[in-house]
Every structure is written in C-alpha cells, then in structure tokens.
Amino acid sequence: MVLAGGLGTRMRSRTAKELQPLAGRPLLSYVLEVAEAIEPAQRIVVLNPAKRAVLEILPPGWQVAWQEQPLGTGHALAQALPLLAPGIHRVLLLFGDHPLLTPADLRRLLSEVEERCPAVAVLTTVLEDPAAYGRIRRQDGRVVGVVEAREDTTSYRGPVEVVSGATCYDRRWLEEALPRLERSPSGEYYHTWLVELAARTPWSAEPAITVPAPPETALGVNDRFDLARAEAIVRSRVAERLMRAGVAIVDPSTTFIDATVEIEPDARIEPFTIISGQSWIGEGSRIGPHAVVRDSRIGPECEVLASVLEEAILGSRVHVGPYAHLRPGTRVADDVHIGNYAELKNARVGRETRIGHFSYIGDAELGERVNIGAGTVTCNFDGVEKHRTVIEDDAFVGSDTMLIAPVRVGPGGRTGAGSVVNRDVPPGGLVVGVPARPIAARRARRRPEVRGE
Q1: What range does the record give for the signal peptide (predicted)?
Q2: What are the sequence ranges of the domains in the chain?
Q3: 28/368 Cα distance (integer angstroms)
C-alpha cells in the first residue's frame, strides 16, 4: 500500500506533491517503482479526490482507495484494507512522499519479517536531529511504541532512532488492531500508534521490531526545501550509476542528469551541463561544458560545446557549438558541423554539411555536402503560414543569403553573398543580387592542361 492522500499544503503549489518533478520524473513514480521491484501480489495506492491527476501516472495493476477526509495515515490505511485480496498475509505500507527508498531497503525489511514473524516491523534510521519524524520508544531494549514529533516533549542528547519510509504488518493482526486506533489530540489517526498496540499484544515472537536503513531513506518530501535535498541525492545516485557503467562525469557536483537519461560508456560529460528528459548520449561523445540537452539523441563521437539541444537527433561525429541552438524537429546526419550562433528548427541536415556560424535554418531540408555561409537565413514565415526551404546536395549558399520560402536550391546550386533568393535556383546555377537573378557560370580560374606539358 502506498499512502498519497495528504494534501501537501506545505509544498505551496497548484501541482500535487506526488507529481512534483524530481530529477525528471514525478516524485511518486520513484515509490511506485520501488514497490514494483519486490513483485507484490497486490498494489494499492490511497488518494484524496482532490488529487485525481495522480491517476495519470499510475502503472497498470494499481488499485485506488479514496480517502475523502484527510484524517491521518491510520485513517488512510483503513480506507485501503477493504480492497485487500483474500490471499494476502502481510501488508507493506509505503509513503508517496518518500522517494529515496531502495529495493534493497525493502528486501532487508521483508527478510527480517520472514525470519522473525512480528506483528509489526518498522524500517528505521538514526538521525542527530529527529526533526518531524516519529521517534521509536524502547524499554529494556524492546520496542514499546512510537511518539510523534508534535506529541514529544523529550529533550534528546545524541542520535535518535526515527521511523523511516516503510512498515510491514501481519494482515490478521492489522485488521483486528486498526479499529482500536485512537484519535490523536490533533484530530488525526496515526499509523505509528499501531506499534504500541503491537507491543502490548501477546505474540509468539517479538511483536514489534525495527530494521535499520540508511539515514536518507527517512527523508520525506513536504516542502520545496525537502524536494531540493531529495533532488541532490537522486542526482548523486544517477551520476554514480553512470560513472560505474563507464561514463566520465568530470565534476558530478556541477552536472545535472535526470534519472531518465541514458548515456553509453566512454561518453564524457563536462561541468555545468544539464541533460534531461528522454535524452540518449552515444559512446565516445563529449557534452559540455555549459551544454543543455533535453529529450535529444546524440550519436557516437559527437561534440556539443556550450549549446542547447531540444528534441533534436544527431548522427555520428557531429560537432555543435559553441553557442548553437537546435530546436525541436531538428535531425542531423553524420559528420555535420554546426558552428557558433547557429539556430536550427524543424530542419533536416544531410551528411558532411557545414553550417559555420550566425545562421538561422528553420523549416528546411539540407542535402549532403551543403555549405551554409555566415548570416544565412531561411525566411520561413510570411506572417500567416510557415513555408519550407529545400537545399539539395553540394549546394553553396553564400554569406548573408536570405532564402524566401518556399524555395529550392538545386544540386550544386550557388548563391552570391548578400542575395535575396525568392525563386528556385536550378541545378548547378548561380544567382546573385536583390532580388537574386541567375548569371552565367563562372569561368574556371585554373588554366586548362595542355597535352605534352
């Protein structure tokens, strides 16, 4: 069971807390993924009706229990119990705002439950400052209860054992004990009070036990500060996973990579780089420094220096930047150079084409071995509609050429510097001027060879 029924008012956001982005994914998705990893027989999430948007991210197979009134975690647990299938013997309770739990944490908890058969097993950790977490109470070493932070008047010196992000219950005991849960002075029902009920229950084994976990597992996300702390931990985990898989990340502390990103071995990520969304980086590519890559695919042996890529696709051995901007719909073939201050949008670029610098290529199709001179602009918008420019193989576009779409430059076609091209350029043709007009092909400057020389 995953509890996600709280309204999350401390987040101060119109977006439900569970849907807040965390390293490129909704916060709740981390909890659901961890739950899926242990292959439970049944999956239930508890939601408030005000958070129906959460339904959009639930994977198949999850049932929903509705908590109409936010009366605490114990009340939320009671809403889910009627949905339990007959064959369920143990109930694992997770929280939708604890994204740092790992499958290893849960397997360790379940292993202890399997071995010791308690009524309640609580995943705990030790913190110097217990903050807002429930604190474990012991007597002669045995767990006797949990006291909530708002009810606790104890002054602590030294580390404190606190409730972390998971609790496992014996199903039969839970169904008998939950109706006996009393309302707290704050008006809520705390699931943690079940630990005290368990400790007082005659049981064949120790009725209430704790299982230790790393301190970060206790981090629940309640506000923006908590979210930033969780983000730092998740990104650190992502960087470690990638580096152990063969990716070079020069400075993980200044590199931000989403959990959804895939990077092949021998790629090198330079400092101050952001890679997000469904991006994929090929083997041997160098990204950054100061690059921003979102939802893009970058092939092997590419270099992206201080540039922005959004929903773009690069082939192999493509060089981009510095200070280029590839916008959505851009598709670049192998061995292309895109230099500084070039912007491409919804453009297809053929092999070995060069776009040196200071150019805008929008709604265009460039063939192979095309040269785009500095200052070239495809004028794709007539004030009402967008139009397409086609520049075919081996064309040479001179500096400061304005291509008034729709227009086509044929194979081997050329434009003179400063031309305004509003008519198609024939194959092998040369146009110059404003507006551009065809002129005779240039004579070869090289003297023809003479037989016998």
Answers
A1: none
A2: 2-218, 224-439
A3: 46
- Is position 67 annotated in a ligand binding site? yes
Q: Is 385 annotated as a binding residue?
A: no
Tokens of 104: 């290893």
pLDDT of 378 above 90: yes
pLDDT tens-digit profile of 215-270? 998 899 999 999 999 999 999 999 999 999 999 999 999 999 999 999 999 999 99
Annotation-wise, does 367 bind a ligand?
A: no
pLDDT tens track for 31-42: 999 999 999 999
Is 258 annotated as ligand-binding? no
Residue burial 212-248, b: 16+ Cβ < 10 Å; e: rest: bbeebbbbbbbeeebbeebbeebbeebbeebeeeebe
pLDDT at 441: 55
184 is in an annotated binding site: no
Angle formed by the axes of helices 224-244 and 27-37, nearest 10°: 50
User: Is 357 considered catalytic here?
Assistant: yes
Instruction: Please tell me which residue in 75, 325, 357, 387 is annotated as part of the active site.
Output: 357
pLDDT digits (tens, 9 = 90+) for 56-77: 999 999 999 999 998 999 999 9
Q: What is the pLDDT of residues 271-282, one digit of tens each?
A: 999 999 999 999
Distance CA 35, CA 22 (A): 18
CATH architecture of 224-439: 3 Solenoid (2.160)
**Burial (0-12, 13-18, 19+ Cβ within 10 Å), 56:** exposed
**2 alpha carbon, distance to own chain's centre:** 21
CA 342 – CA 359 distance, rounded (Å): 5
269 DSSP 8-state letter? E
Residue 52: how many CB atoms within 10 A of its CB? 12
The topology (CATH level 3) of 2-218 is Spore Coat Polysaccharide Biosynthesis Protein SpsA; Chain A (3.90.550)
* Better pLDDT: 10 or 335: 335
What helix, strand, coil percent values describe the chain, rounded to 5? 20, 30, 45
Report, in angstroms and rounded to the nearest whole number, the Rg of the chain calculated over CA atoms: 31
Report the alpha-carbon distance of residue 252 to residue 241 in Å, rounded.
12
